[in-house]
Amino acid sequence: VVDKGCDAPSNLKIYLHKKMWPTYHLHTSYCDGKNTVAEWAAVLRQNGVPAAGLSSHAPLPEALARPWAMKSSNLEAYFAEIRQAAATADKLQLYAGLEADYVAGFTAPGAFAHLADYTIGSIHILGLLADGTPWEVDMSTTLFKRGVQEIFDLDYCKAVCAYFGATRDMIGLSPPVLVGHLDKIKIHNRPDPLFDETAPWYREQVMETLHAIREKDLILEVNTRGLYQNKTDTAYPSRWILEEALRLNIRIALSSDAHRLEELHAWFAETAGWLEAMGYRELTVLKDGVWQPMPFTKSGLKWT
Ligand SMILES: [Zn+2]
Ligand SMILES: [Zn+2]
User: Fold this and answer.
1) Are 229 and 257 in contact (CB under 8 A)?
2) Which residues of the chain have pLDDT under 70?
3) Span from the CA of 57 to the centroid of ligand 1 (angstroms)
4) What is the 3-state secondary structure (H, E, C) of the chain?
5) Distance 269 CA to ligand 1 centre (A)
6) What separation in Å is there between the alpha carbon of 249 and the centre of ligand 1?
7) Predicted pLDDT at 19
8) Which of 39, 225, 254, 288 could form a disulfide with 35 if both were Cys (CB 3.0 to 4.6 A apart)?
9) CA 120 to ligand 1 centroid distance, Å
10) What pLDDT score was predicted for residue 18?
11) Quick one: pLDDT at residue 20?
12) How far, CA to CA in Å, does 187 sit from each of 15, 58, 225, 258?
């Protein structure tokens, strides 16, 4: 299965299937991704991917500094390197994106909109812990519980409502192009649930957030990372949420949120099969600089 392009780094093991899956949530070594821009460009080309975007974590303000985010001083080099790779990428359209955080009072995707081809807006940090460190909501469940205790008096409903509330604030105040891993917070419901995803209050939070996405006509990301990390049984977001999104005519894009080459298209065929069974017929892709719908089946996307 190894198909090394003439300029591919020799240590690259390619065990990916050739599939026409454009995809726009890929992390590079500028943040916590394991592979360089050049390695990504080579693998995308070898797989015959017609269009893709790299989306390292955007820099965070100093008060929120985290090891997974890009350093501000590297931002310029990041874009320059992607633009250079794109210029020599042959048939591959390679875009320069950023996964940008929204943290009220600190940072928002809009701050990076003029630099990047597109932004993915995600909630990873939901305020500060008692000792002043950022409360990351998608790390360990121990850290999650600590934040709920220190900030929300152990009220999980309040904490989860704040998470979706932050997502809606981002959408309303500083909207990204794509809304990243909408319900990633559900990782804390395994093995033992901390909150009830079937409770009316939870469904209400999700529905309000979907309506906000619809109102701004943003693209909802269908993110497979929880599946291949074995943190969830479904994509982000869950199937019922995707069914509601379909009813609301919300556009979707399929992402792996890959942090290494072999994750590029992880769980795409399965997830596309579920989407197809739900009634989805189109994915939204970035082609010639324009986000547009294209038909897909579980075998791939029909690039036209
Ligand atoms: Zn993320
Ligand atoms: Zn990501």
Assistant:
1) no
2) 1-19
3) 8
4) CCCCCCCCCCCCCCCCCCCCCCECCECCCCCCCCCCHHHHHHHHHHCCCCEEEEEEECCCCHHHCCCCCCCHHHHHHHHHHHHHHHHCCCCCEEEEEEEEECECCCECHHHHCCCCCEEEEECCEEEECCCCCEEECCCCHHHHHHHHHHHHCCCHHHHHHHHHHHHHHHHHHCCCCEECCCCHHHHHHCCCCCCCCCCHHHHHHHHHHHHHHHHHCCEEEEECHHHHCCCCCCCECCHHHHHHHHHCCCEEEEECCECCHHHCCCCHHHHHHHHHHHCCCEEEEEECCEEEEEEEECCEECCC
5) 21
6) 24
7) 62
8) 39
9) 9
10) 54
11) 83
12) 28, 23, 11, 17
Amino acid in position 65: A
Across the beta sheet with 118-122, the strand order is 51-57, 93-101, 118-122, 178-179, 219-223, 251-255
Type of residue numbered 161:
C
This prediction's pTM: 0.94
Q: How far is the CA of 223 from the centre of ligand 2 (A)?
A: 9
Query: Is 72:61 a contact under the CB 8 Å cutoff?
Result: no
**d(CA 39, ligand 1 centre) in Å:** 21
